[in-house]
């Protein structure tokens, strides 16, 4: 009996149904499943094994589950009783039990899979939203970086301008002190301007005297030089050119600061020696002079 039940179990698992009557005229009952299994399953054991390996366990019809569980739950049906009949049938029973357990587990797992799929879809949407937010955040960060760079540039400009303003204020303060300190020179400068203004009209004549002395008076003594200057002043006046009375080459060409340098270097402080030095420095090539 257990063998017949196992064969029926195998037929249910493989979704095989006997014809209404078998070749012996037996009606469609347990014996019919037994004959069908011998004819289609046991006749080709290798194919039967391969069908068991490739069995679509994730899509077992409920009708098949109900029929198989009916057999497995029979009080008289057990692995021990099947083993007592045939060890070869134990594998089929264990495989059928495993398929039923797997089917029951799918009832728990499939909703979870569906939930996981739903959550994955939500996660994909969330990740897409997150990617969009990150892109926008990156744009904002880049804009902030540009603004910070511009801000820092303006801060540096402000510091530079403040530094320039402070420098200008210090310069103005020093200039104001200098102007205040030179306020006493105003009278002297005014008098100097008047003096220079009055002497401007004598500039041409005075320069003629000074130029003549540099060019021609080198070999002569101090007295002869003085006589030459007096003679030239008189002649220039007769020619209608204004010239200052008593003007001398020393008055026109002497640089008091340079003269101090010469005298500090042991040049005698008399008019002749100073005139000789002026002639030497003002000559374009070389002077002709006789050292006294």
Strand fraction equals under 5%
Major sheet size, sense and barrel closure: none
Mean pLDDT: 81
Helix content: over 70%
Radius of gyration: 66 Å
Instruction: Tell me the number of strands.
Output: 0
Could you name the ranges where pLDDT drops below 50 across 5 or more consecutive residues?
Answer: 20-28
Q: With helices defined by DSSP (H or I, 4 residues minimum), what is the helix count? A: 12
Give the overall shape, derived from the CA principal axes. Answer: rod-shaped
Report how far the terminal alpha carbons are from each other.
Answer: 165 Å
Please trace the helix and strand order, writing H or E for each element.
HHHHHHHHHHHH
Q: In terms of structural class, how would the helical and strand content be classed?
A: mainly alpha
Would you mind describing this structure in some detail?
This protein is an all-alpha fold. Among the domains are: 2-108, no CATH class; 192-282, Histone Acetyltransferase, Chain A (Up-down Bundle). Helices cover 74% and strands 0% of the residues. The chain has helices at 2-13, 30-40, 45-53, 62-72, 79-85, 87-181, 186-200, 203-216, 222-238, 249-253, 256-264, 271-282. The protein is rod-shaped and about 170 Å long. The protein starts with a helix and ends in a 10-residue tail after the last helix.
